[in-house]
Structures are given as structure tokens and as C-alpha cells.
Amino acid sequence: PPGRKVLIVYAHQEPKSLNGSLKSIAVEELSKQGCSVTVSDLYAMQFEPRATRNDIVGCLHNSEEFNYGVETWEAYKRGSLSSDLVEEQKKVQEADLLIFQFPLYWFSMPAIMKGWMDRVLVQGFAHEFPNCYDSGLLKDKLALFSFTTGGSKEMYAKGGISGDIRYLLWPMQHGIMHFCGVKVLAPHICFAPEYVSEEKRKEMLIAWAQRLKTLWNEEPINCSPEWYFK
Amino acid sequence: PPGRKVLIVYAHQEPKSLNGSLKSIAVEELSKQGCSVTVSDLYAMQFEPRATRNDIVGCLHNSEEFNYGVETWEAYKRGSLSSDLVEEQKKVQEADLLIFQFPLYWFSMPAIMKGWMDRVLVQGFAHEFPNCYDSGLLKDKLALFSFTTGGSKEMYAKGGISGDIRYLLWPMQHGIMHFCGVKVLAPHICFAPEYVSEEKRKEMLIAWAQRLKTLWNEEPINCSPEWYFK
Q1: Residue A132 sits in which domain range?
Q2: ipTM entry
Q3: Structural domains counted in chain A
Q4: Is the CB of A20 inside 8 Å of chain B's CB atoms?
Q5: What is the model's pLDDT at position A2?
Q6: Is 90 exceeded by the pLDDT of residue A113?
Q7: Tell me, what CATH number does B223's domain have?
């Protein structure tokens, strides 16, 4: 709906890839709805995934023994996080919906996107004990994981060799998003696009565009162990 | 035992940290046993976590549309992966045991270590369909995930707010190591070292040293859904 803000965090090296198309379709469809859409194109930005001392501008809280979590928390409070993090935090702060678009790498997101999580979702900004899970600091936001897989739907079935796909969603959806208070929409998964016909890949793009049309009517999942492990 | 080779992949910024001590203890204890121990100190190496075109030396297999998985597979076969990857693959190839030592970041490994998985465990080297899971190309090797958490043991209990710690081990142990044919030893977990006494932290170090003394007698876990989700 007009006025809603969406941040797409996108991690693929190739604009012509299916991930690239899925990202473009989301920009197009959500813009058409009157949403304001921002994209963090992590590879194009050469986003830094490593959590280091460089994330703190100026002096450290404790220069004797470097503790990344403590230092970034302190730096957030005194406004001395590095500018690339501040930029990303502003985008998150303004967004009503976060869409993560990526190819599944090793049952998880690519390192460049994991680095976005590690570095952007700083204590004080995204959570601050006891403000975690339902009272996380990013509550009232939504997140959606949209990704492609190498393995087929059969491999990722319950009883399949790679186990129910929901098993691997736990760390990302519950451990990261729910921890920060973000409500999670059902994931959007394109299974094994590299092994299907061009026709099937087109259907995948159409299905995503279709889903986006009614996305704002969706209810979040119940992000508890039952959803993941039955 | 004398002659066994161990690779420790280590991801912490601070040598004085508990992770740093756990790493040093492993080097010391395993060396004392006559093992030959190699450490990949990822932050010290400024290890690159991003999966990009730079990982392929020279021309691409398909320069029209970049596909990281295909390009690194092809590059592996013709010996044109970037030298930092070749170095790590040599270390893996020689090792009988891989130890991953890290602080848990967001229910997973830090991005710098995820990047090591994404970039080093290339198709052709670590797996090559149908050689995955029990017939993965790194079979006859062992792996052990040793990590520290922010949350307490109670939070990571079944029924606890963060769920059974085993839930989050699935992508790392099954999705990565088991996929490559590596057998997995029980994880070594130090819960919430930042919130316990100096005394308790010392006990954690002693417990790790103790475990290492009889590590080679351990049986791998049964890396199937039952172990993780009961």
C-alpha cells in the first residue's frame, strides 16, 4: 500500500541470475503498489562481511581486550559506528518490511549477507537485553526470506536426505529476525532453478509477482519450534 | 596420536579472548600428543569471505552469466582457483580432523568463517554429485565445532527461549560437514563465558584440555535428524 517502506537486502553476483530477476520483480511490483523500495545490493556495494575493529570510529571502550559485541554496542550509543553500518541501520529503521533475496549457500545465507546480519544488527539498535524476541527493538517490522536452492524439493522434504527445509530456517528466522522482534512472513523458496526448464523458471518469477500482490494481507508465521520441527 | 594431522579454523579478533585460549590449548594439547597442528587464523589472515569472480584466475567458463558454483567447479578442475583457496584446500586435504573454533554469532558461525565454508568447499574438491553425504569427497575426516555462546545453557535448552542448541547445529554439522562426507564429533560448547566468573572460565579451559586427551577415542555422532530434533 502507498507509503509502506521496503528494504531488499540482495546477495547475488549476477544481475541476470534468477535471484537478480526475483529482486527486480519485487522492486517493480512493490513500487507499482506505491511502496517506497530500497535495495542493498551487497556484492555491488562490496559490502564488508568481517566484524572487526574498523567498525568502531575512534577510540575503543576497552583497548586491552577487543570484544566486538561490547565495542559495537558502546559505539552505537555514542554514535561512532562506521558509516556503512549507520547507512544500513537507517534503511532498516525506516523499513516496514525487510526482504532477504539470496541463493542458499550451505544451508544458510551467503557469507556476505551473514556479515550484514553480524554487523548491522548491533546491540542497542536491534536488541538490548531483555528486549529480545517478542520485545526486540525492531518489533512492528516484517521480514521475508526469499531464496533459491541447489537441491530439489524432494531432497528438502521431511525424510529427504537434506531434511525438511524448515530445519535450516530456524537460525535465520528465529535466531536472527525473531530475536530482534521482527515478525516473519512465510519464506519464498525456488527449488533447484538450475535444474528446471526455462518455462518453469518463468513460472517461478510469475509466482513471486503474484504473491507480492497480496503480501500485505499475509499473517506472520508462528515463529516457535512447532513451526520448524513439528 | 603421533602423525595425525589437525587443522584448526579459528575466528576471533582477540588473542586474549576465551576463544583464543581454547584455540591455544588445542594447539598445545594436540601437539603434545604428537599431532601436527595447523591453524587458519581467519581474522589475522584477513580472510576474504565474499564469493566473487576474483576466486577464479583467468578466463571464465561462461562470461555471459556468472554462476559462482559452476565457475569454481570448473576452475577447480583446471587448477585455476585463487591461491588463498588452494592453500586452504591443501590444509583440509591433509587434515584428519578439522576443528572450528568461534564465538556463535546469530545462531551460526561468524561471516568470516561462513565465507571459508562458501569458498573453500568447492564442488569437485569437497563434493561432486552424487558424492555427497556419506559418500562426500572428504570422507574419512572428522570435524568438531567448538564455540562460545552469548546466551546461557537454560536459554538453549529444549523448551528454552532460544530452543535446543542442537537445532542450530543442523546447518553447520549436517548441511556442511556431513554433506562433504566428514564425520562429526560431538560439539564443544562453552555457554555464556562473558557472564560467569573467572574461576568458571578457567574450568572451561581445563574441560577442553581434558576432552582433547581422549578425543581420538570418541565415536562420531549419528548425524541424522533424530540427533538434532529428537
Answers
A1: 5-229
A2: 0.98
A3: 1
A4: no
A5: 84
A6: yes
A7: 3.40.50.360
